[in-house]
Amino acid sequence: MTSCEHSSSAGNASGNASGNVKTGNVPGDSSRIASVESLDKGNQMERGLTNRHVQFIAIGGTIGTGLFLGSGKSIAFTGPSIVLVYIAVGAIMFLLMRAIGEMMYRDPSQHTFINFIDRYLGHGWGRFAGWSYWIVLVLIGMTEITAVSTYFVTFFRTFGIELGAWKWLIELCFLAALTTINLIAVKAFGEAEFWFSMIKITLIVAMIVTAVVMVVIHYHYPSVHIPGSDGVNPAGHAGFDNLWNGFSFAPNGWLAFLMSFQMVFFAYEMIEFVGVTVSETQNPRKVLPKAINEIIMRVLIFYVGALLAIMVIVPWRSFKPNADGSFASPFIMVFRYAGLDWAAALVFFVVITAASSALNSLLYSAGRHLYQLAVDSPSPQLNKLGVVSSRRVPARAILVSAALILLSPIINAFPKMSSAFVLFASASSAVIIFIYILTMIAHERYRRSPDFIADGFLMPAYRFTDALAIAFFVFVYVTLFLAADTRGPAIAGLVWLLVFGGYCLLHERYQNRDLQEALR
Questions:
Q1: How many CB atoms lie within 10 A of CB 51?
Q2: For the chain, what is the total number of helices (H) and then of strands (E)?
Q3: Which of 33, 143, 372, 451 has CA atoms 20 to 30 A from the CA of 489?
Q4: Domain Amino acid permease/ SLC12A: where (predicted)?
């Protein structure tokens, strides 16, 4: 692709792709909003994502594998009150998206919301956020590619086919296929995400409808063995009484209730992904607000609706951990109780889809973030990654990100390296919280800056809502210290903030001092 690639390094000096240039308003008039066309002069990406693509990308961003496989653990922690936790955390994540949406509405030529941290908090915090977020994406991508192969092996194992020895080849094939989709064109990525989301939505809706029918006909089911569960699950019935029989707001104590917030928070992780697609979306100022405003409805339908449907079929006290600490999938339980013997295969097929969707999105996002970092970098070597291909995608940045994700099977082959990797991957989730906090602070600074426009996609009561979101993210981080398995990642995250964050801030400070001395 080299012969037909276009460098954006030169364009960065005068364009707005880097996010370092304040663009948009007519000089001296902060009351007028600039057109997307005028802002796009430095945007070399193709606006190939349609409203249909973005709406389903936003839906897919709120539905991960955790809903299909991990919701059993969440229910076991707090019982029916987990629904309130999902609503509360979903509301805070909605505030995060409104903050990102307002800034992106102001300047939809930006490739990532991280640029606003750079613009309103300074290059030091911008560098910390940019590199940290890209590293987090790569680390999560490495865990997702491992998850894809694990679910793939489990799926075929339900048919008596053992593919465990070929996990490395499965990972290679999946990564190659998804990288190719990302390299073809942004429209190809959008189509892939549309169909991935359709499959996930179909399963959730089918499960909710199944639960409704079972309740209406007062369905009773016999004891049965659930794939992924130790022993035999007891007989029962479908009914709303399963929700309030023995109800307790915190059945396992208030400590477990508090810890449920971090579990639910990480289920919503990467919901901000739609904020990375804006510079490649057609008519972004119309599409983006709609996609963000519908987040609450998606939370109510796909999380709250699914959890309630599960708990009216399966009594919440029935969710018990296996000997290895794992939980059976609630989706498999519902369909199995309904008499579908192939429920496990169905659910794991959708879980493969969900994990593939997550990996596909991570490749897309990691490619755009590395591209942005390369464009902004003073390093000529790194600038070579800041180019777009003839298909108007950041091909080099995507390929480099994919190559690092491909290290996952190699790392997993060595026990000591694998243990260290698990710690770093877990710490990456903690680092995400820092990024969210910086984003909310950047939004507050934007509202007080000359860039602010009063006729944009405004976040209501921003002084209160920004502070509320920041306080919540701090609260979630504090809860990481409550359990032994999250305490290590929490400490590692703080070390990363102090060491790398401190380096970025000091580097920027001394760079500015040297520049001032040179100008004297």
A1: 15
A2: 24, 4
A3: 372
A4: 53-490
Domains and CATH numbers, the chain: 45-513 (1.20.1740.10)
Q: What whole-number distance in Å separates Cα of residue 353 and Cα of residue 195?
A: 9
- Mean of per-residue pLDDT scores for the chain: 86
Q: Does the pLDDT value for residue 437 go beyond 60?
A: yes
Distance of CA 361 to the CA centre of its chain: 8
Crossing angle (nearest 10°) for helices 114-121 and 415-447:
60
Produce one character per residue of 496-505: b if its CB has 16 or more CB atoms within 10 Å, e if not.
bbeebbeebb
Q: How many CB atoms lie within 10 A of CB 416?
A: 8
Q: Supply the pTM of this predicted model.
A: 0.89
Read off the pLDDT band of 13 (50, 70, 90). Answer: very low
Tokens at residue 205, please?
Answer: 């809706």
Tell the burial category of 407 from Cβ atoms under 10 Å away from its Cβ (0-12, 13-18, 19+).
Answer: middle
Angle at 292 between CA 289 and CA 296, to 5 degrees: 135
Give the Å distances, CA to CA, from 37 to 43, 44, 116, 207. 10, 12, 20, 44
Q: What single DSSP character describes residue 280?
A: G
What is the full DSSP assignment across 108-151?
TT-S-THHHHHHHH-HHHHHHHHHHHHHHHHHHHHHHHHHHHHH
Pairing of strands 220-221, 387-388: unpaired
Rounded mean pLDDT of 167-185? 93
> Which of these, 475, 489, 474, lies nearest to 441 by C-alpha position?
474
Q: Does the structure show a pLDDT above 50 at 24?
A: no
User: Torsions phi, psi of 251, nearest 5?
Assistant: -60, -25
- pLDDT value of residue 425: 72
Contacts for 444-448: CB closer than 8 Å, 24+ residues apart? 445/120, 445/121, 446/102, 446/103, 446/106, 446/116, 446/120
Give burial (CB, 10 Å; 0-12/13-18/19+) of 211: buried
Enumerate residues 6+ apart whose C-beta is below 8 A from 506: 124
Residue 159 pLDDT: 86
What pLDDT, in 10s, does the model give residues 439-448?
999 999 999 9
Task: Specify the 3-state DSSP secondary structure of 237.
Answer: strand
Burial of 248 (0-12, 13-18, 19+ CB in 10 A): middle
In the numeric block, the tokens 């001032």 are attached to 516
